[in-house]
C-alpha cells in the first residue's frame, strides 16, 4: 500500500499540470476549444460558434474563479461553454496567473496586498485585440466572471470601462479598499447568491485579516454615482416566483444601466445564468 502513495501523488500532480494548461506544446491550435492562444504575458482559450460566417461575431470573455483554469471552463465547468456558443457568441476564456510559490491561478484584483505579478487589465486588452484578429466583434463584448474573476470584472469596469461593451460579474465585488471613484459610466449586471458564505453580499475578512472582501451594495453605490443614477432606489424591483429571483433595475441612468439579480443559492452560478446575462446584454444593443 505504501508503494502506491507516490504513484497517486504523481498522478495528481500531472493532472493538475495538464488542466492548468502548462503543456502548451501538446495543446491543439488556437480556435479549438481546448487549444491555446498566446499573447504577451499569458494565454487564453477560444471557442467559436458553429455558425461563424464572414461577419465578426459577438463574444463573452469569461474569467474563472480563484484556483480555476481556462481548460476546465471550456470542458463545462460552470455550464458556460455550450450555452454561450448555442446563442451565437464566441467564448473567450483567459488564464489567470499563479502567484509566486503557488499553483492556484488568480487575478490581479485591486486589494489590500496588490503585489500581483501581472497587469491583468493590460493582459485582457491584449486578449481582446488578438481575438478580434480571429473574427471577434470588438464592439460587442460582454466581460463576465465568477468569484475572484467576478471581482476582476468589477475592477475592469471601474478602471477601464471602455474595455468591453458591458459587464456581468457573479459572486464577487470590489475588495477593500473600495475605490473612491471610477473612470466612467458602464452597463453592469451583477448576480449574487442570497446564501453565499464564501463571498457574502456584505463581504468578509479572509487570510487572517490581510484581505477584506468588499460589500456588494457599496460597490453598486460607487457604480451608480459614476453612471449618473440620481436615485438610490432602483426604478423597478420585480420578483420571480419561479426560482425565487429578486431583481433591482436602475434603467434611467444617463450613462448606462445597472441590474442586480439575487438568487436563493450560494457561491455558484444559478441555473440559466448565461442565457439571462446574454438576454440582458442584447437589450443594450
Automatic annotation (TrEMBL):
Signal peptide: 1-22
Stored InterPro entries: AB_hydrolase_fold (IPR029058), Dienelactn_hydro (IPR002925), FaeB/C/D (IPR043595)
Keyword Membrane: no
Locations listed in the record: Secreted
Alphabetized Pfam families for the sequence: DLH
GO terms assigned for molecular function: feruloyl esterase activity
Keywords in alphabetical order: Carbohydrate metabolism, Hydrolase, Polysaccharide degradation, Secreted, Signal, Xylan degradation
Domain (Dienelactone hydrolase): residue spans on this chain: 52-200
Top-level taxonomic group: Bacteria
Gene Ontology CC: extracellular region
Single GO BP term: xylan catabolic process
Function summary: Involved in degradation of plant cell walls. Hydrolyzes the feruloyl-arabinose ester bond in arabinoxylans, and the feruloyl-galactose ester bond in pectin. Active against paranitrophenyl-acetate, methyl ferulate and wheat arabinoxylan.
Family: Belongs to the faeC family.
PANTHER family: FERULOYL ESTERASE C (PTHR38050:SF1), PTHR38050
Protein name: Dienelactone hydrolase family protein
Classification lineage: Bacteria, Pseudomonadati, Pseudomonadota, Alphaproteobacteria, Rhodobacterales
Amino acid at each position: 500500500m505504501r508503494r502506491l502513495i507516490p504513484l497517486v501523488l504523481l498522478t495528481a500532480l500531472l493532472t493538475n499540470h495538464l488542466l492548468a494548461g502548462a503543456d502548451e506544446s501538446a495543446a491543439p491550435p488556437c480556435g479549438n476549444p481546448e487549444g491555446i492562444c498566446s499573447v504577451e504575458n499569458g494565454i487564453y482559450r477560444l471557442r467559436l460558434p458553429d455558425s461563424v460566417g464572414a461577419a465578426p461575431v459577438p463574444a463573452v470573455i469569461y474569467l474563472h474563479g480563484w484556483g480555476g483554469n481556462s481548460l476546465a471552463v471550456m470542458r463545462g465547468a460552470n455550464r458556460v461553454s455550450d450555452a454561450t456558443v448555442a446563442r451565437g457568441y464566441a467564448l473567450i476564456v483567459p488564464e489567470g496567473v499563479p502567484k509566486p510559490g503557488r499553483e492556484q491561478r488568480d487575478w490581479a484584483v485591486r486589494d489590500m496586498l496588490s503585489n500581483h505579478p501581472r497587469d491583468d487589465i493590460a493582459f485582457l486588452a491584449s486578449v481582446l485585440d488578438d481575438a478580434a484578429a480571429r473574427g471577434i466583434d470588438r464592439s460587442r463584448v460582454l466581460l463576465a466572471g465568477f468569484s475572484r474573476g467576478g471581482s476582476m470584472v468589477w475592477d475592469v469596469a471601474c478602471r477601464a470601462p471602455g474595455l468591453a461593451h458591458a459587464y456581468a460579474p457573479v459572486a464577487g465585488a470590489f475588495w477593500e479598499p473600495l475605490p473612491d471613484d471610477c473612470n466612467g459610466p458602464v452597463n453592469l449586471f451583477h448576480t449574487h447568491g442570497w446564501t453565499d458564505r464564501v463571498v457574502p453580499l456584505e463581504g468578509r475578512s479572509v487570510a487572517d485579516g490581510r484581505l477584506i472582501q468588499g460589500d456588494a451594495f457599496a460597490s453598486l453605490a460607487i457604480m451608480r454615482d459614476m453612471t449618473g443614477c440620481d436615485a438610490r432606489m432602483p426604478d423597478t424591483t420585480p420578483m420571480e416566483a419561479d426560482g425565487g429571483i429578486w431583481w433591482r433595475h436602475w434603467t434611467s441612468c444617463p450613462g448606462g444601466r445597472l441590474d442586480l439579480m439575487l438568487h436563493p443559492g450560494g457561491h455558484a452560478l444559478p441555473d440559466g445564468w448565461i442565457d439571462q446575462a446574454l438576454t440582458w446584454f442584447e437589450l443594450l444593443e
